[in-house]
Structures are given as C-alpha cells and as structure tokens.
C-alpha cells in the first residue's frame, strides 16, 4: 500500500500481536478513536472491543488475561460467538484472511481488523502517545481499588462462611447435648436395673441362707434323736433313716433357693456390665457435648470477628473506588494528547469492578455478617 513499508509494518504488527489481549484492545481504541470506527463517538463499538477482549480471555483456557492469540479451534469459536451469521465455510475463509502474519494463530488485533474492516497498516502506525504518568497514576488508583474490593469480597465471603460454620457448630452442639441427655437417662435406667438385681440377689441369698439353716437344724435334730438313748429303738432308727434320706437329696425348698440365688447372681453380673457400659457412654457423650459447645462458642466468636472485618472492609473499598474515580476525572480533564483508549479502558474497568460493591455480592454477605454478629451476642449454655 502506498505510504507504508510492508516489511517494517509487519514487524510492528508482530509487536502489537504479542501484546496481551487488554493491551491490544487499548492500542486498537487509541488508533481509531477519531477515525475508522470512531470509538470516541461510538460507545457501542467501544463496548464491542471490551466484549471481544473478554471473550478471548474466556476462550484462552491456558493463559487467560496473559494470552495474546488463539489457536484455530478457539478462533473459530470466537468468530462463532461474535459473528454467528457466518457459515462454517465462510468462517474457514475468514480465518485464513484475518491471520495477517500467517502463523496459524489469531490475535485479538487480527480479529478486530477483520471485524471493523480497518487497514492494519494504519493500525500499527497510529500514534499511541499520551501522558503515561497520569495514565499510570489512574491505573494504580484502579489497581488499589480492585485490591480493596477483593479484600472486602474475601472478608464478606469469610463472614458468610463463618456464619454458616457457626450455625452448623451450634446445631451439632445441640445434637450432642440431646445425645448426652439420652445417654445419661440410659445410664440411670441401667443403674436402676442393677440396683433391682442386687436387691433380688440379696433376697435370694437370704432365702438360701434360711433354707440352709433350716436344713442344718433338721439334720442336727434327727442326728440328735438317732443318738438319744432315752428314746426307744424304733424312734432312734426312724430318726437315723430320715437323716439318711435328708442327706441323700436336698429338699425341694433348698433346691429352689439355690436356683433363685444363681439366677440372681447372673442377673447382677449382666446388669453390672450394662450399667458400666451405659455410664461410660454417658461420660463420653457428656465430653462430646462439652467439646461441641466450646466449638460452637469458638465458631460464633470467629463469625463475629469476620462480620466486623467485612463491615470495616466494605467502606474502605468504596472509598478506594471514589479515589480512583477522582484520579481518573483529573486525568480526563488534563489529557491533551492521544491515549483516549487507555482512559476509556480504565474507566470501563472501574465501572466493571464497582458492580461487585454492596448492592450485589456484599448485600448478602453483609446480612450474613450481621446475623453472625447477632448470634455471637446470644448467651451460650454452660
């Protein structure tokens, strides 16, 4: 083309193509602020540049914002997203056409050369000069505001998460307290069963002792009669026979007393084991309930602290954005050269970031933070 050095311009294009997506978008805006697409008077077209930049970042899975060009497949997707009227064959033709440097990759710049139908020679030779000191100051203000915003978002999210954790800890604490109460009741029931078993064992033992004493007395009486010479032979022999029969087999009452006493001992043994297990379970449940209560109290304190941090971080972020806006307005007022694309981009990023201030994400987080703070004030059970 007349007036342009193709070899030199191709080197310039390579330089532009190697810039990250955002810098390519800014270069393009600067180049055609008052000519071609006339971005300065065409905010819709300028917004398209922003959209193309963000679409490239979305499609560039590996490098994201640090990327500068897309492979053929992703470039195909870019064209499909931004110019859906094209057929597949047309898209293939377009891909060949817009790959100006023939490296089989498509940069954001090459795509916009095609999309806005501009002369790439004019693009690479367009002046980019501006008061970069002021631009950098505005960018620094925006970066600081974004940093404050991220800190506020993180604080708000932490407040929300800590509040949820506090609620879970409180629910767990209540569950453990219920379990502890049930275990204590089971322990008392087991102790009552053991006490009853011991009472029955004592009763059975007393009955056995009484039967044994009665049997011994009976045997002693019969033995005494059998040896009493004052009695007749018949009576003595009868007593000896009865004594032999008594010793040969226990009487029914004594046998029953022994059976009852053995059953009572087994019952006591079983009840002792059960009572011991129930007591141990009750002690464990009580410890778990105490631990859960302490965890609930700790979680409530953390939630309260996070809520306070969120409340403090949000106005700091808002103030940082107000400062960034003031710096940007000053830059706009004093800008006398080119570089309007730089200014537009800072302004656009500022507006994009402000979307995440309280009226959106922070609103829910502030509510959660306030709830956490209120919950922390509630008296805890001992």
From TrEMBL:
It comes from the Eukaryota. Keywords: Coiled coil. Residues 135-225 form a coiled coil. GO terms for biological process: actin crosslink formation; parallel actin filament bundle assembly. The keyword Coiled coil applies. Residues 202-287 form the Calcium-regulated actin-bundling protein C-terminal domain. Pfam families: F_actin_bund_C (PF18060). GO terms for molecular function: actin filament binding. GO terms for cellular component: cortical cytoskeleton. This is Calcium-regulated actin-bundling protein C-terminal domain-containing protein. It comes from Triparma retinervis.
């Amino acid at each position: 083309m007349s007036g342009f050095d193709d070899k030199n311009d191709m080197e310039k294009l390579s330089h532009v193509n190697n810039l990250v997506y955002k810098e390519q978008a800014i270069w393009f805006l600067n180049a055609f602020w008052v000519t071609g697409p006339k971005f300065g008077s065409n905010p819709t077209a300028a917004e398209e540049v922003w959209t193309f930049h963000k679409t490239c970042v979305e499609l560039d899975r590996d490098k994201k914002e640090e990327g500068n060009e897309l492979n053929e497949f992703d470039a195909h997707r870019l064209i499909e997203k931004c110019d859906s009227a094209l057929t597949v064959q047309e898209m293939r033709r377009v891909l060949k056409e817009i790959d100006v440097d023939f490296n089989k990759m498509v940069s954001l710049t090459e795509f916009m050369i095609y999309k806005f139908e501009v002369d790439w020679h004019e693009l690479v030779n367009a002046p980019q000069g501006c008061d970069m000191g002021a631009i950098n100051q505005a960018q620094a203000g925006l970066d600081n505001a974004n940093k404050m915003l991220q800190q506020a978002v993180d604080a708000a999210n932490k407040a929300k998460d800590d509040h949820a954790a506090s609620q879970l800890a409180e629910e767990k604490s209540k569950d453990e307290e219920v379990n502890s109460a049930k275990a204590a009741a089971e322990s008392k029931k087991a102790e009552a069963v053991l006490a009853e078993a011991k009472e029955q064992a004592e009763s059975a033992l007393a009955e056995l002792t009484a039967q044994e004493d009665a049997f011994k007395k009976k045997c002693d009486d019969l033995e005494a009669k059998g040896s009493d010479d004052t009695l007749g032979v018949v009576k003595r022999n009868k007593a000896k026979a009865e004594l032999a029969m008594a010793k040969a087999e226990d009487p029914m009452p004594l046998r029953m007393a022994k059976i009852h006493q053995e059953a009572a001992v087994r019952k006591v043994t079983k009840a002792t084991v059960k009572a011991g297990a129930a007591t141990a379970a009750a002690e464990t449940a009580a410890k778990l309930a105490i631990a859960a209560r302490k965890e609930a109290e700790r979680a409530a304190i953390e939630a309260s602290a996070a809520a306070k941090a969120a409340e403090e971080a949000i106005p700091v972020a808002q103030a940082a954005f107000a400062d960034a806006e003031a710096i940007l307005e000053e830059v706009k007022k004093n800008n006398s050269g080119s570089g309007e694309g730089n200014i537009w981009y800072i302004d656009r990023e500022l507006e994009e970031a402000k979307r995440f201030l309280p009226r959106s994400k922070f609103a829910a987080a502030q509510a959660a933070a306030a709830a956490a703070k209120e919950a922390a004030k509630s008296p805890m059970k001992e």
